[in-house]
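Researcher: Let's continue the batch. This sequence belongs to Transposase domain-containing protein, and it's 704 residues. Same format as the previous ones, please.
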Amino acid sequence: MENIPYSQQLKRTGKLYKDADAKAKVSRLDTQSSATHSETQIDLRNQPSTSSALPFTAADILPNQANIDASINLTIISDCDSEGDNENIDINEDEDIENLDINEPDENETININEEQEDYETDEIEIENLDLKECLKIWSLVSNIDHKSLRFLLRILRTNCDASLPKDPRTLLKTPKKPAGITNITGGQLWYQGIKTCLMKKFRTANLDDNISTLSLKVFIDGLPLHRSTNLEFWPILASIDELPNEAPMKVGIYCGLKHPQNIEEYLRQLVDELKELTTSGIVIHNRFIKINLLYFIADTPARALLKGVVNFNGLQGCIKCTCQGTKENNRTIFRGVSAEQRTNKAFRDGDYMPEHQRELTPLLELECLDMIKQFIVADELHLIHHGVFKKLIKRWRDGERGFLPRWSDQQCETISSKLADIQLPSEIHRRLRHLKYLDKWKATEFRSFLHYGSIVVLRENISNEQYSHFMLLFCSITLLSSKAYEEHWPKAGKMLNRFVMDYETNYGPNGLTSNVHNLQHVLEDVKNYGPLPLISTYPFENELRLLKLLLRSGVNCLQQVINRLAELDQLDNRHKNTEENIKYPCVKHHCDKRTAHIRQGLMLQQGDRNGWFLTKDNHVVRFESAVERASTVVIKGKKLLTSEEYFYKPISSFLLNISKGNMNELSSFSDEFFPQSIKCKLVAIKTMSEEYVYIPLLHTLET
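Model: Same format as before. Here are the structure tokens for Transposase domain-containing protein:
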């Protein structure tokens, strides 16, 4: 290795250690299979050199030069798990796979664990009357077991249990020998499965509700970086069905390249052609004609600009909804005002916005059913609000803004972080709030939880009265627009958002009037057209991107790997997929001496401050005590809070948002009985003083 640069020596030596560790795990399974389970790690460098004790030789541990070169080669040829010489490449599943997930925990955060609401309730998967081979297939797919581990398990089982099992995991999982549907386009490769194929797979074993005659498609496109060490990225095309909100998005296609798609015509051509056919001719599912409707496209700001062929968000004509003219100040594009003329579909299609706004013609113009203004969502709560405007506000408060506001002191940051740590979020919210020193690592879901449940209490004593009043415009308006229960107050929310935008410069200076703040004025229109914010959010799609990334086993042939994994997963039919729909509501379940009342989907009650508060339809705050099943329903026992007070009255009354404050000393001494139909929502209890709490509705549980 004398002629190899020192940095390359380190990389290659490190890879050898990783490969040795991987082989050590295999060794532990083999040599201890007959003993009790042990957590002891095997260090191959300290093992005796008795080859008979190990199922491999030293040559197996140290990969040859060809394999090392293959592991760092990014040329897209074939899947690492496909047949051929690549079959024996040592794969480190954790290597280079960057965690960009909105749900994946960091090492410094705590996840709220609710045993009854885990991602995979394997106890609920139906495996009765299935043979060992089928059970192994289901287990490996649900658990995302890599081929190397499954191959070794098959070897053990063939030796000790069932010799009829296949030797190769690809035989068990019916892995395609060569992924189909991949085409070379400018800048990379595109795999297009198609919307029709996705729909036929989805309803292969599932029934379509008799009341559904139209399927409305939401199409999502975004970039997904794959590795820390390279620029390789996916640009998936995902689609979900508005009439089936609990179904996971469908993987319509995936582009793989070192940059975003360089030729939008090549990238979108197959999608556009198929959408033209489906929206015109529909589709036949289970001998029923189903109409296909294109509801909207949703993406983050750069992806929207790419799809529409318009200037980016920082262009002077960067707004896709209105003709507001931006100005360059301090090397930023600033958008002032809320009364600019709205863009129209006709003007866009006629090219009236060229060249200041439109840069090029997009193939989406061929879709006559598509409104090029209205059907492109900007009111995405993840990118625009939680990870956009609200994140920027917190950073401004923490770090200060020269000439406008001082930064939080170290003592303030510690006090605020302590309050965040003390907040007991209900089990439906899986991620606890973290210290402000981790603010740059917060997930979008953490900003969402802080905005909706902790902010009005924590910020009250830590920002100025003017800034708090200004922030309350954002809090109240976003809360109103987050539930259909508040639909009659949506126009009021729109006015508050406009006021928030107009007053932003006064509180934080002109540097903050960027595209995100400007786009708040367009949120109401999207909500009026397509429903409350959670229904027009990219959260489900971003979570699907995380799952796509978890399918990668190495940095080689990434597109082929994912296609093969998806082909394997297609074998899981609906009876193997756990959903909350299997629960018949209402019901009572017992777990670890705890009695849990499941009122309706997404609403459960348990004893304790974390999960034990709810609001009745006659606006009584109640603490849950117990529940019993009686005569095909559930009877809930709880103690009422005798008095509750308004927590704020500006810009609107907190009672309008079902928010109140109360004192535990005023809790009733006797229990009342309640029925599920009398419950309006579950409450999040935020402690303010020794015995005082603020009660805030858990938004998704509000009955509409």
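Researcher: Any comment?
Model: The radius of gyration is 28 Å.
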